[in-house]
Amino acid sequence: MKKSLPAKKPAVRAKNSRAVIKKLIVRLRAHRAAAIASLLLSVVSVALTLLIPVLVGRGIDCIKEAGRVDFPSLRPILIGVGACAALAAAANYLMGLVNNRITYGVVRSLRNEAFSHIQRMPLSALDPRPVGETVSRLIADADQLADGLLLGFSQLFTGVMTIVGTLAFMLSIDPLIAAAVVLLSPLSLLMASFIAKRTYKSFLDQAVVRGEATSLADEYITEQKLIRAFGYEPTAKKRFGAVNERLRRHSVRATFLSSLTNPTTRFVNSLIYAGVAVLGALSVIGGGLTVGGLSAFLSYANQYTKPFNEISGVVAELQGALACAERLFELIEAPEQVPDPDPALEPEAGDGSVEFKNVDFSYTPERELIRDFSLSVKNGQRVAIVGPTGCGKTTLINLIMRFYDTDGGEIRLGGVNTRAMTRAALRSRFGMVLQETWLRAGTVRENIAMGRPDATDEEVIAAAKAVHAHAFISRLPQGYDTVLGESGGTLSQGQRQLLCIARVMLALPPALILDEATSSIDTRTELIVQDAFARLMKGRTSFIVAHRLSTIRDADVILVMRDGHIIEKGNHDELMKKGGFYRELYETQFAK
Asked: Could you give all domains of the chain from N- to C-terminal order, each with its CATH number?
């Protein structure tokens, strides 16, 4: 199984949310026109909504006394109220459509940006990251960000406009009472700000632990066979339960803190409303306001304080969204691999010689793996690499393909330093078959033709026949058009490997890398595939990593590695005569 996450991690330190907001604003520039439209619709909606209390106040003033109502004057007022309500509803509906478009457009762009960046990250940065944690950032954190942005666009703009508009109307009705409202309202914002600062940290911790839980679930679900074979279920359940409990604690804390915002601001705003009612009533008694004017003022006071409740609620949600955005931006801003050179060099088309010159490499600084390694492989040679586990066999392949860069020295292909070539040009010269198979969701034909999408059906079938995969493909429900699930679906490991070998057979690359390429197929089929490989390798530089020494007896050169160094070199017969480490390995496998 993959290395699991530790049971506990140090608390994540929250960064300045202003920096995250600035980055989001940069992404919003692409939706500038839609944002302006949303703002204009917000202004229209608020203006129409705020006009209704004025009309209602005038309608109340049409009641002269008991049993005496000025209906001719009241009728157009009622029509105006209805028209304002209808138009405000239409503006809100359109604003919702525009806000949805902005929000999901921004999140889609961020997801695409993050996924594209992953393709440019060095494997040395990707390998230590749990897959589930990265997926959590791409999917769950992006969804949380979308929810926060949608609330922000839907309520923040409208709330601010409502506050400004109601304040203007209140000042026009009674400046003294309006001033009292303005002086008391900062209490609501101070309370919301105090709680929001503490909420952001809690939401960030929640997002981090959610990523851990996703990663652990991904690992345990993927490795179910292994877990059940070793009776690991109780331990897996215990470990997942521990992470899940931490997620519960962080979620409860984040939700509790965010839930304090709304009742706190509502309490402050209720006090403001009560104060306005008392002052307004005294003004009516003193003749400063009419009853209709007081009704309009109370309505405005209610609408003035209401956005504070909504905005405070939005701020709490935005803390969670910003915490998730921070994690997404951390992924997007992770260091990229060294850029390809421009201009780049290209070796001659027919030259497949490879040279290692004083190469140093280690996966971690504290553990040296390869030191001062040199090797020269002529064009067309078949080179087999053998040795005990961990000696550096697969590492050499990773360095040739520039999946990892050397710490020192250089590697040359056709006399050209591989760092002077583009990675695409370098990798296009090699066909790889690894011990770990990779098949994508799609048809059998699409998987075989991955390296040559323009290949004809006849060429695809010929490649499958060459590796003896045609027989089992023909038995599939739709033959070559059978749709395979992720990683090959229900195909056996051997069948998957045959499809990967057929893929290389079809591509006919200038050079080959076979890393335990036949480890999952039966002995009889292996002999046939080896014969096919022998024909394919003629005239092509080939690197063969193998534990079964019987598969590399015909190699031109056999390199015997131990602890990152070549300790023996020669063909099979020469190495057997030397009676060294290779002979010891060979006789271990074929003891009399």
From this structure: 20-332 (1.20.1560.10)
- CB-based contacts of 115, cutoff 8 Å, min separation 6: 138
The secondary structure of 10-63 as a DSSP string is: PPPPP--HHHHHHHHHHHHGGGHHHHHHHHHHHHHHHHHHHHHHHHHHHHHHTE
Which long-range contacts does 132-136 make (Cβ < 8 Å, 24+ apart)?
132/211, 132/214, 132/215, 132/216, 132/217, 132/218, 132/219, 133/5, 133/211, 133/212, 133/214, 133/215, 134/331, 135/214, 135/218, 136/210, 136/211, 136/214, 136/215
- For residues 388-416, b (16+ Cβ closer than 10 Å) or e, as one string? eeebbbbbbbbbbbbbbbbeebebbbbeb
Structure tokens at 447: 């998987």
The strand pair at 565-570 and 557-562 is best described as antiparallel
Residue 131 pLDDT level (bands cut at 50, 70, 90): confident
CA nearest 517: which of 440, 400, 438, 432?
432
Residue 520 pLDDT grade (very low, low, confident, very high; cuts 50, 70, 90) = low
The SS3 call for residue 123 is helix
Q: Pairing between strand 557-562 and 442-443?
A: unpaired
Beta carbons within 8 Å of 68's beta carbon, 6+ residues apart: none
User: What whole-number distance in Å separates Cα of residue 348 and Cα of residue 140?
Assistant: 48
SS3 content of the chain, % helix, strand, coil (to 5): 65, 10, 25
Pick from 421, 278, 439, 335: which is nearest to 121 by CA?
A: 335
Q: CA-CA distance, 84 to 48, in Å (whole number)?
A: 5
Detail the DSSP E strand segments found in 43-183.
Answer: 63-65, 68-69
How far is residue 17 from each of residues 25, 297, 315, 321, 323, measured CA to CA in Å? 12, 37, 12, 10, 8
DSSP state of 401: T
The greatest distance separating any two alpha carbons of the chain, rounded to the nearest whole angstrom, comes to 123
State pTM to two decimals: 0.67
* Backbone torsions φ then ψ of 341, nearest 5 degrees: -70, 150
Distances in whole angstroms, Cα of residue 515 to Cα of each of 191, 501, 503, 568 = 63, 11, 15, 20
pLDDT tier for residue 1 given thresholds of 50, 70 and 90: very low
Question: Which residues have CB under 8 Å from 587's CB, separation 6+?
Answer: none
Q: For residues 385 and 543, is the Cβ–Cβ distance under 8 A?
A: yes
